[in-house]
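Next up, a chain.

===
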Amino acid sequence: MAYPSVSRNRRRLACVLLLLFVVSGIGLAVCADPLSPSAKDRQIALTVTSLLKREHLSKHKLDDEISQRSFDMFLKSLDSMKLYFYQSDIDGFAAQKDELDDAIRRGDVKFAYDVFKVYLQRLDERVRLADELLAMKHDFTVDEQLAVDRDALQWPKNEAEARERWRQRIKYDLLVLKTDDKQGAEATEKLSRRYQSFAKRMHQKDDEELLEMYLTAMTTSFDPHTTYMAPSTLENFDIAMRLELEGIGAALQAEDGYTVVKEIIPGGAADKDGRLKPGDKIVGVGQAQGEIEDVVDLKLGDVVKLIRGKKGTVVRLQIVPAESVDRKIIDITRATIELKDKEARAQVFEAGTGAGGKAYKIGVIDLPSFYMDMAGARIGLPNFKSTTRDVRRILDRFTEQGVDAVVLDLRRNGGGSLQEAINLTGLFIDRGPVVQVKDSDGRITPYNDIEAGTAWEGPLVVLISKFSASASEILAGAIQDYGRGLIVGDHATHGKGTVQSLMDLTQTLFRLPNMEPLGALKITMQQFYRPSGASTQNRGVASDVELPSLTTHLDVGEKDLDYPVAFDQVEPLKFPKLGYVNDAIINQLQLQSAQRRKDSEDFRKVLENIARYNDQKDRKFVTLNEEKFMKERAELNADKEEEKKIEELNESNGLEIKRDYYLDEALAIAADYLSQLRAAPAGQAVQVIQPGGTARTN
């Protein structure tokens, strides 16, 4: 349900870090509204609270402060823009606001069920109201405004106030659709379907999902990254880390009650079959035998479960092709899918002018995450999936190709395995500390690259954005501290300087195989620090050469989230300064880049968009006057710009690396960097790079 809000940083970040469901059959039970907590809920809640008390970095007690935070976070997760509950509902819930900590220590999560029952009742009332209001004629010439700042809103006190809130909301939604050339009956039917579909999906929410939502409201009251994962969420997390699953190979998303194909995974079963296309709607799913089940208005996760299955088995999909209204059935044989669009990929580009007038060869590595097949590593598989192994192979290939410099693109890398971040950094430095880690008892442990030698000794440029988080910041921080390479991109990285461990609740409780899965707690247990002693927490790693980008201005940094761990620092470690970068080089590169961007039409547009975006993003109201609304949208749609940037970060672009104006500038900076290094006068403490990636120091 599209709705603007300045309190949307958690939604924005989730969009970036979210792995699209990649479908890969399992019969589904018919879901009814959650009724009351089970013994399993109690067991999970007790285990989660015990682990939080014992293991969380902050050592914060589960007290009234956490209780009040949990109360607010849970209500925000259900009713972020105060559209459904009445003030009287909130007042009733608030009687338990200071008692939730005591209840959950007993394993009592009944509060979640009581609130959710009222929520579903109010949701149904609002959907009926929406249909009534959609049938009315609305005056778009009136100068009125819709409040879009959650903190400035109050829950409606009565039915009349709720009706007024929804009247304005529907006017806004109709105006948004009109900007997409949808109006009249088409627009009202689309909105009616959207509201009804949303209500149906909420009624399909099962006990497992409700418990996950409630416990996560509590765990994120300690810090933004401590979350409870239900068994199905844990399964998707494991798939994301090992980059492999069994299924058809299609990324899906929910749109107004339909399951829509977002992307076909290169090399997967659907890609090889060739009949399923992006934009197709999946309206029915069946196995090799039996009836096809209607999946319109079914939760995306449940549709995914129906489509996933063992390799070699057949799934039948009833689809409405993107370019048609006629339904057809296609059958696809499931297969093992390697998510190659999510792993490291590389390409060599030419830029600048080197010796003899020849262009430099610059190898670009796009790294979306620090992935590792944890299960494969645990059992000792010889060829388990690993970021470091993949990047080492790429660097070896670059050396064979005579590449002059490497650009490591971490702009869409939200993190991953800590060990992989350490190992990957070791491909560029010859032994030494990469990161320091402090635990909840204050003990500080350095983690070193212990492997002698490097895989790449030539110039290195690390490309970052505000979405580069966690493990990305460990690598970027170490590279900057060592003076090993140049950091280019947004003003700074995300600012996530904490380390999470995944604790399987079944193993924690029983330590036995084949027990019923209880999910896992992803818990913040440590904080990491650069070799220089500074944490990246809330600050990130600053660019040496900053490039204008809208992402710098999005409220998606760690400091924009609720209850982040505070910044601090520890004593620096001893490590060598490698001398690939100094202030003189950085200053010259900044000047050269600024001169190029001054003459760039693309960067001029970026600066204009940034100015307009900053004017819009902190607004507390949006006009519902059509003429004014359309004029504002014609200049810039802040919400659309955010979605566009997030979409760009999530897009894989197949297996190719897209060369656009931004990457062109990064390549130009790398070429300038090369030229400066090779022209360095004798005695200057910078590395002089020879062709083929070898180095000597003047």
